[in-house]
């Protein structure tokens, strides 16, 4: 759990945080602690923050909409922003004002069909640049539920267009190029934004014949997992 939480926490400690989206590292409760020392590695700063949180506070930050933790000066944070093929409507992305829209690229099933991983990387780089712009204006988070890396095997699945397709090798290459474009910025010390792969392996059922995705038991052989879903 701690390792997972370190990865999550790293996503909110990149800057000195003088806006409502970040802890106040000038005069807030955490200002004198390692979490606010930008000269330290991100993981060390995250570990410092975790060590100061109670179990219940850690749990409260593991849900989609994390509430404030006043005693630590941690602001409310919405983990769920979307960037599947451009910034998209989601709880964490708000369009309006000077930012009424974002670039919408073709769906991943079409981008994957190009077999052009340089293009995939370049598209992701543009998406993450726009994501940063939205975040600067308080209209998006820095964590994005993107990409969907499940294999498109059954055409009845309503999310097939969200994936690169049915080929495990192409999907693995697509995901690598996309995440590099989303996360790698000018400063190697920090992620540009944080990508979060979805969904569960072998998950390709939404709601059918009385069974929904929360109760569907996908029985997949070890060979199929290794050769199809996990690469």
Question: How would you characterize the overall build of this protein?
Answer:
With 231 residues, the protein is mainly α. Helix content is 32%, strand content 5%. It has two domains: 29-68, no CATH class; 79-229, Glycoside hydrolase, family 3, N-terminal domain (TIM Barrel), CATH 3.20.20.300. It has helices at 2-10, 42-51, 55-60, 108-112, 117-136, 168-183, 222-229; strands spanning 65-66, 77-78, 143-144, 194-195, 207-208, 211-212. The protein has a two-stranded antiparallel ribbon with strand order 1-2. A two-stranded parallel sheet has the order 3-4. Strand 3 (143-144), helix 6 (168-183) and strand 4 form a beta-alpha-beta unit. Helix 1 crosses helix 2.
Number of domains: 2
Determine and state the CATH class of the largest domain.
Alpha Beta
Shape: globular
Quantity of strands, as a count = 6
Low-confidence stretches: 14-18
**Helix content, binned percent:** 25-40%
Portion in beta strands:
5-15%
What is the H level of CATH, i.e. the homologous superfamily of the largest domain?
Glycoside hydrolase, family 3, N-terminal domain
Task: Give the biggest beta sheet.
Answer: 2 strands, antiparallel
Do you know the CATH architecture of the largest domain? Answer: Alpha-Beta Barrel
Structural category: mainly alpha
The CATH topology annotation of the largest domain reads as TIM Barrel
Total DSSP helices: 7
Q: How many whole angstroms does the radius of gyration measure?
A: 19 Å
Q: Give the integer mean of the pLDDT values.
A: 88
> Reading side by side through the largest sheet, how are the strands ordered?
1-2
Assembly annotation? single chain
The helix-strand sequence is: HHHEEHHEHEEEH
* Straight-line distance between termini: 24 Å
């Amino acid at each position: 759990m701690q390792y997972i939480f370190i990865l999550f926490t790293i996503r909110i400690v990149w800057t000195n945080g003088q806006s409502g989206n970040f802890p106040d590292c000038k005069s807030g409760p955490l200002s004198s602690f390692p979490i606010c020392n930008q000269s330290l590695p991100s993981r060390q700063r995250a570990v410092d923050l975790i060590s100061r949180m109670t179990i219940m506070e850690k749990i409260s930050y593991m849900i989609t909409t994390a509430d404030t933790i006043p005693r630590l000066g941690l602001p409310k944070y919405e983990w769920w922003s979307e960037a599947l093929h451009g910034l998209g409507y989601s709880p964490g992305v708000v369009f309006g004002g000077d930012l009424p829209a974002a670039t919408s690229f073709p769906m991943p099933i079409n981008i994957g069909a190009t077999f052009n991983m340089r293009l995939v990387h370049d598209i992701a780089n543009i998406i993450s640049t726009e994501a940063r712009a939205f975040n600067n204006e308080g209209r998006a988070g820095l964590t994005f539920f993107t990409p969907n890396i499940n294999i498109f095997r059954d055409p009845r699945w309503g999310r097939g267009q969200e994936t690169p397709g049915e080929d495990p090798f192409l999907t693995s290459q697509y995901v690598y190029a996309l995440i590099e474009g989303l996360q790698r910025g000018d400063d190697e010390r920090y992620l540009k934004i944080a990508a979060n792969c979805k969904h569960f392996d072998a998950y390709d059922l939404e709601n059918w014949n009385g069974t929904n995705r929360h109760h569907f038991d996908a029985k997949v052989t070890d060979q199929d997992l290794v050769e199809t879903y996990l690469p």
